[in-house]
């Protein structure tokens, strides 16, 4: 099954030694997903059909990480597994059925003012953080766990991926 790319506009797909790539070793932890950088309020679309299984705080003071702005995540279970779309805002609710390509959220600025990272290729203070879990995992990860799956191959092979998108 091919995913639909979740954004219309994006600076690239972080891979390998990019700080936004899946499994990249950051200062104190391994990165649990893939960060797709885009503009604030950019619409986010479902990569496949599914059902909303969880919505909760993802970053910021509401999630015990006050060095980030407050954002939420939405977990949608579909054919591939459970996809966590983090660093967003949404109006959906648990139990909502979603169609592939349906508008599910908007990106919300996660990086606080003054903390931008112009030293990172393609980086923006707004992004969607995508994680992929096995079926039945209905809460966001708390760190780099064995159950995490790499969403990068699905993104690289996705339908409607922007033509000019680069591997960062």
How would you describe what is shown here?
By secondary structure, the protein is mainly β. The protein has one domain: Glucose Permease (Domain IIA) (Distorted Sandwich), CATH 2.70.70. It contains one helix and eight strands, in the order ββββββββα. The protein has one helix at 152-156, and strands spanning 34-37, 43-45, 50-59, 71-78, 82-89, 97-98, 103-107, 127-133. Strands 1, 2, 3, 4, 5, 6, 7 and 8 form an eight-stranded antiparallel beta sheet that branches. The radius of gyration is 14 Å and the shape is globular. The two termini are 24 Å apart.
CATH superfamily: Glucose Permease (Domain IIA)
Count of domains: 1
Overall mean pLDDT score? Answer: 92
Low-confidence segments, given as residue ranges, are none
Class by alpha and beta content? mainly beta
Number of beta-strand segments? 8
- Element-level helix/strand string: EEEEEEEEH
Approximate helicity band: under 10%
> What's the overall geometry?
globular
N- and C-termini, Cα separation: 24 Å
- Note the beta-strand portion: 25-35%
- What is the radius of gyration computed over CA atoms, rounded to a whole number of angstroms? 14 Å
- Characterize the largest beta sheet: strand count, sense, and whether it forms a barrel: 8 strands, antiparallel
Summed up, the helix count is 1
Q: Which CATH class is shown?
A: Mainly Beta
Architecture per CATH nomenclature, i.e. the level-2 architecture: Distorted Sandwich
CATH topology category name: Glucose Permease (Domain IIA)
């Amino acid at each position: 099954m091919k995913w639909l790319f979740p954004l219309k506009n994006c600076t690239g797909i972080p891979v390998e030694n990019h700080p936004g790539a899946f499994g990249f070793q950051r200062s104190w932890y391994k990165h649990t997903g893939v960060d797709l950088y885009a503009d604030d309020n950019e619409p986010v679309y479902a990569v496949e059909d599914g059902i909303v299984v969880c919505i909760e705080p993802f970053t910021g003071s509401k999630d015990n990480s006050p060095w980030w702005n407050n954002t939420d995540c939405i977990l949608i279970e579909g054919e591939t597994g459970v996809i966590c779309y983090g660093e967003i805002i949404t109006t959906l609710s648990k139990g909502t059925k979603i169609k592939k390509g349906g508008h599910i959220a908007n990106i919300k600025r996660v990086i606080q003012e003054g903390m931008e990272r112009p030293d990172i290729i393609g980086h923006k203070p707004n992004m969607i953080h995508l994680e992929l879990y096995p079926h039945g995992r209905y809460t966001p990860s708390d760190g780099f766990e064995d159950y995490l799956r790499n969403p990068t191959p699905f993104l690289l092979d996705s339908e409607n991926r922007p033509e000019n998108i680069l591997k960062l």
